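Could you help me review a protein record that somebody else here produced? Do not assume that whoever made the record got everything right. The record follows directly below this note.
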Amino acid sequence: MDIIVKQSNSTTWVMIDLLGRPMGEVVEQPKGEFTIAPCGSAIGTTSGLKLSSFSSLDAALAEVERHTRGRCRMVSGAIAPASEEP
């Protein structure tokens, strides 16, 4: 599963799938320690994923890639939210 990653502020990066559904975020807290916080349908997808104590954003995203067998792609600018289903 490929994931799009975008920095939302100085310590948080949001993750969405290619359909625009939220997958969670990576948060730097405290400085120099990164934690993965899955949300929505990603909670089941990331079962068994190591979630905390990464020394860099790259290390946290590499763990997501390893677990999902996909790629994390960094983007800049706005990310369009998933469309609402009736």
About this structure: Residues 3-75 form one domain. The mean pLDDT is 88.
